[in-house]
Automatic annotation (TrEMBL):
Transmembrane segments: none annotated. Residues 45-252 form the DUF58 domain. It comes from the Bacteria. Gene3D superfamilies: von Willebrand factor, type A domain. This is DUF58 domain-containing protein.
Amino acid sequence: MSKLLDPKILMAIKDLSLSAKMTIDGFMNGINKSTVKGAGLEFSQYRSYQPGDDLRSLDWKVFARSDRYYIRESEVETNIALRILIDASASMSHSDGDFSKIDYARYLTASLAYLASLQGDAVGLYVLKSAGIYAMAAKQDYQHLSRLFYQLEQIKAEGHFTKPIHYTELFASTQKRELLIFVTDLYQTNDEIIKLLDTLSTLRHEIVVFHVLARNELELDFKGYSTFEDLETGETIQIDQEKARQRYKSKLATYLAETRAKMLDRRIFYRTISTHEPLDEALRDFLKQRSKLRI
């Protein structure tokens, strides 16, 4: 199934809803062997039926598929409201090969939304653009999910990161604690994204940050290029990649370590994710981490 979860194959499908279904169906095929426990966005652990087990814990859907008896452990109904925030500034249009960081963000978001919907959780979408924030309040129904997929397809990465004056939509929600998932490349000039996360943290929501990077960014491997342009400011710089690569990787490693430390200080789950990485790996790590937080 890992080939089907390769971003290149998924993004060739074009239909976000179909791609999300393939991703999650493939992911769920292997989740039964996982040790992830919990509810909502966290799958329970399955184990074989043993004499004396409570028959009410049998999962009859799994039996119908496998003709074997399995017990679903630690299942607790705790539906949550999930809000997915997408950074749609120009830097997210950076590409490596046939697709960009914003493409990867679309498919990751679609997969998370589909997974949440299967679990009965309400899902909302917030697209952070330079002109403001497009907001879809969290709901739980099929029509809402279809509209969410449609809006994901309309996203264009352009302009600068959203100004604080437009943040009102992010705070216009119920008093109930929510799960916020922020998909971004963390490109910032004055710590504006960190400041936003600080503000969101005061609301006591659980926050997850997926830091999306292209492989050519991680490796400084832009074949045939010596002049580079900042997608948000238009500034250019000339680089000898061969000479700069070792120093670049060292500085990048320091930056990523510092960023991780900042997130840990704020009790934010943080994960770097490369655009060539299979989506199910990011999903599995995310669900395992959420399980640890609730033990």
